[in-house]
Each structure stands twice: as C-alpha cells, then as structure tokens.
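Recall from the previous lesson that a structure prediction takes nothing but the amino acid sequence as input. Here we apply that procedure to Sigma-54-dependent transcriptional regulator from Belliella kenyensis. The sequence below is the only information supplied.
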Amino acid sequence: MAPFKIFIVEDDPWYGQILHYHLSLNPDYEVCLFETAKACLLKLHEQPDLVTVDFSLPDMAGDKLFEKVKAFDPRIPVVVISSQEDISVAVSLLKAGVSDYLVKDEATKDLLWNSVIKIRENQSLKKEVEILKEELGQKFFFEKSIIGKSASLTKVFGLIEKAIKTNINVSITGETGTGKEVVAKAIHYNSERKKKNFVAVNMAAIPKDLVESELFGYEKGAFTGALARKIGKFEEASGGTLFLDEIAEMDLNMQSKLLRVLQERELTRVGGNESVKLDVRIITATHKNLAEEVKNGHFREDLFFRIMGLPIELPPLRDRGTDILILAKHFVDEFAKSNKIPSIEFTQDAKSKLMNYAFPGNIRELKAVVELAAVMADESVIEEKDLSFFSTQKEKNLFLEEKTLRQHTCDIVQHYLEKKQGDVLETAKVLDIGKSTIYKMIQEGEIKI
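The prediction returns the following tokens.
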C-alpha cells in the first residue's frame, strides 16, 4: 500500500519540525515540510493526500494557498493552522471547503493527529464507495456479466431485456452451473428495483423445519430460542427482489404457504398475528423440469403457474459453441489479474481440447478447469496437457430418449447448428449433408435457428 503523503506548509522552522516529527511517528505517513507556499505549489504534481497550511505565510496568505491547492485538485483535503482565534475566519474557511481549522497551541499536534486520522478514514470510505459503484456497474451490466456471443445466449439477452422493463415474476431453468443467479442479479440490478435489496435463498440448503421461519420471519417467543423478533427473507427483500433458487426442493406443505403469500401479497411471521404487506419481485430457479415435477405430484400446479411468469431457459455450455473459448479467456484473465501474474494464452491444441469437452458442470466447471490450468501452466501459455477435466463424460448424449430416426436426425442437426452459432453452411459441412436439407428442416419447423 502506498504511504499517505502529507505536505506541511509552515514558515516557522521550529514549529514545522515539531509537526513533521509528530506525524512521522506513523510509519504509514510520508511527511514533507515546506517553508513557503511557492515551494509547496511546485510539488503539488506529486499528488499529496493532505496539505496543512499555516494561515500567515510570508509569500501568500493561507486562504489563497488553499484556493490554489483546490484549483489544482479539488480532492486534496486542506487543514489550516492559525495563531489567530478568529471565529469568523474559521467559519468562512470551513464553509469554503477547508477540512479542519486548528489554532496553534500546545494541543495542536494532537488535534492535527486526530484530524489526519479522520480525513484518511473519510478518503478510504469514499474510495471504497467509488470502487463498489464501479464494480456494481461492471458486474451487473448484463451484456458484460453474462459473457458470450452465441445465438442461444443472444435469445437470453432478449428475454432479460423484456424482464427488466416490468415487475413480472421470472422463472429461470437450466442445468447446474449455467449461471442462473447471475441472470437473476442482472435482471434486478438493471430494473427499477436496483436500489433495493437483492436477496438470494437456496431452498436446497435450508432444513425443512426452518424454511417457513427463514422466509417469513418469526416473533419473539414463537419457539424455543426465539429471543427476539426476526424478519424473514421476504421482508428483507422489501421493494427489491427475492431470488428463490432450487425452488423444486421445497416440500408440498411449504409450497401451499408460499402460494398464499404470493396470492395475498402479505405474510404473517411465525408465532405472530400481524399481517405484513409485501412489495417484492420473485425470481425462481431450478435445474429440474417443473412441468414434469407437477405431473409427478412433486410440485403444486397452482404454484407452478403463479411463479412461472416469464420463463428463461439457460443453454448448457456445450451448446454455446465458441462461447467456451470466450469464457475461458475471461476466466484466465481474471485469475491472472487477481493473482498479479502475467497474462496467459491458450495454445491451439488447448483450445481444441476445451471445445471437444462436454462440460457437464457447465460454466462453473469451466472456471475451475481454467484456473487449475493457469496454475499448472509453464510460463504464460496453457497447453493441452495443462487441462484436467473433472468428469469422464466426453460428449453430449443425444440418445437418452427413445425417438424415431427422423427425430434423432433433427436433434443432431439442431445440436450442431447451435454449436456453430446458427451457421447453416458450417453445420452442413461438419455433418456432410446438403444445406438444402437443413433449410427444409427449418422451414418445416423441425429445427430452429
């Protein structure tokens, strides 16, 4: 961490040395002493973090030096130290933007020490806020946070655009590791609810007996150990978005209670009688087929229709073509940056190995594979030998269901068409079939582009 640079402008050499010595006791401070305003101004290009100014300097009044410092960089805090106890001058300077006004006496060095601490803490908070704002903007501008250019992902972008314009509930489906929570956050942080809370709850991670109190909260004395009122996730997300991940894991009894809350737009905390009105957007996610869960009696049909809203299905990574390489590059760049190592590239053989793997763990697996490869790589190049996969599955199995030959043919063509990002000519070349055959399948609605 760079030292906190302090400029002291004091024409009294003895008093200046006292302040210099006192502040230099902190090893994190880099203290520079100047006897004239001109000498200080000539060094402002060194970007001090703080300037202390004697009000009565021989070559320039302290208020004038303050104005010149602020004109150079308005972010530099200035502390004025004066031998005059003139309240009107102090008030005037503080209104003008001086960070502190100190009167010269025996306590000045200690007051200055405390003032520097406060100013430094305030600057750190401002920097943290700026960094968080920047990260938030980068993280949730969805075309940057959801990385890829494939045709299947472009469709997802279109649905997200529709979702952020209204408060309709959203149901996100897709295999584990496809980025369902990332999509949920993208919707929230680009919607009118972005200034309120985004609250994520993984239903699979909460014990069955605790789900109700976790979601709806509880009153003091509701059960043993309930020593005070606790608001639930619904209230925590008030005005914002509640993301219920793995919604299919919720048991039927809790499903009925959730349905009532969604219908009435109000809840009652466990052990209480007071109704709490709700203003919450619901986004749900699951890797299961909810329609099949309804057919099998594992999920309530009425709740299914209540939460369905706008459905967004996330494509598995194996169906996103060269998005695999785009994501791999993104993850390896992030890894290099966070670990302060040189940028890393992939050899062509390594790229081919990535493209030929099915990634059953999807994006989450790709990230793990790439980060491990970055560690194993020699110098700044990831070779084929550096890539280790965590699954023995090599190809997408297109034949798990019993279908006709024609249906299997359509599935194969659809798979490769998506992998080639809708490029009919390239798909025809790979499968060694005529492009007119593919166009006919598209025209007859057997496959989509």
